[in-house]
């Protein structure tokens, strides 16, 4: 019996040694987090993204396929600030993988690496608000994403010390490209009249470039608007310039009604970059948002 245990332990050690040489198995909750993983880890990681870019990360359901993926993961990369609270903790709990439990080196949240907006505001879960600990949609801010990439590089270096230098170099190169694009976008968006959002999901991007948020179609995050709220928005914004931006999973009815009443453009834009995006794919995605914001009239 004792011998059997010893030999099992020995096999375990041999397997652990073999696993260390293999790429890190990384699970990203969103395509924005996946883009950072691709950019920073490159071929040193085997990446799985749990949610396709058109899905509503607030509303996803934990699925058996997620749990199977998480069971073998070395690292989970989440946006955090409770954006994935409805499904990720359940999926991680069911995966029974001690490496990726919150608090372990195998669990990483972008929101924990940067300062958040909407913290301690009038937000109240009793009113239906989905963001009681602060706004989690930081992934639309390229500057915060560069900070997150730096923190991710450090975490990857902790899990895979032989790659530490490569991770750091990749994150630094990404931060430099972000800096260049942000300068161009700053010029482009100078004087932009402003945006109406469906949900406060692009506020980090607007704040980064000093673009006014003229209103939100939902009055409380996560609660659909009433006809009265839309009428109030029309009354407030009539005669001004702006553009209405909403996500694929948000109902187009109120945005299109508002656009018609105001004579504005309404544009449906994904909050997340394409499934195969890397750092450049992510920056092109932000470029599409910048174009839409600049199209306000
Ligand atoms: Zn949200």
TrEMBL record:
Coiled coil: none annotated. Pfam families: ZnuA. InterPro entries: Bact_metal-bind_prot9, ZnuA-like. GO terms for molecular function: metal ion binding. Keywords: Signal. Residues 1-21 form the signal peptide. GO terms for biological process: metal ion transport. This is ABC-type metal ion transport system, periplasmic component/surface adhesin. It comes from Thiocystis violascens (strain ATCC 17096 / DSM 198 / 6111).
């Amino acid at each position: 019996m004792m011998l059997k245990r010893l030999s099992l332990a020995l096999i375990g050690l041999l397997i652990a040694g073999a696993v260390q040489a293999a790429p890190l198995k990384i699970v990203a909750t969103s395509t924005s987090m996946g883009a950072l993983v691709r950019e920073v880890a490159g071929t040193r990681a085997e990446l799985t993204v749990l949610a396709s870019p058109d899905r509503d990360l607030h509303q996803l359901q934990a699925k058996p396929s997620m749990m199977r993926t998480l069971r073998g993961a070395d690292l989970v990369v989440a946006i955090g600030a409770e954006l994935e609270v409805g499904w990720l903790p359940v999926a991680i709990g069911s995966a029974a993988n001690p490496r990726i439990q919150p608090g372990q080196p195998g669990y990483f949240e972008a929101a924990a690496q940067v300062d958040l907006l909407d913290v301690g505001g009038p937000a109240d879960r009793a009113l239906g608000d989905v963001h009681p600990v602060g706004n989690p949609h930081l992934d639309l801010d390229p500057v915060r994403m560069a900070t997150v990439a730096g923190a991710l590089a450090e975490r990857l270096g902790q899990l895979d010390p032989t790659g530490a230098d490569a991770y750091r170099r990749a994150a630094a190169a990404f931060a430099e490209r972000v800096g260049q694009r942000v300068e161009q976008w700053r010029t482009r968006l100078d004087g932009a009249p402003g945006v109406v959002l469906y949900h406060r999901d692009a506020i980090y991007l607007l704040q980064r470039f000093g673009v006014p948020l003229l209103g939100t179609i939902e009055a409380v995050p996560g609660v659909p608007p009433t006809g009265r709220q839309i009428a109030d928005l029309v009354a407030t914004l009539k005669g001004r310039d702006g553009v209405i931006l909403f996500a694929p999973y948000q109902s187009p009815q109120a945005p299109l009604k508002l656009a018609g009443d105001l004579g504005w453009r309404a544009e449906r834009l994904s909050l997340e970059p394409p499934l195969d995006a890397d750092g450049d794919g992510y920056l092109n995605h932000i470029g599409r948002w910048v174009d839409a914001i600049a199209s306000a009239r």
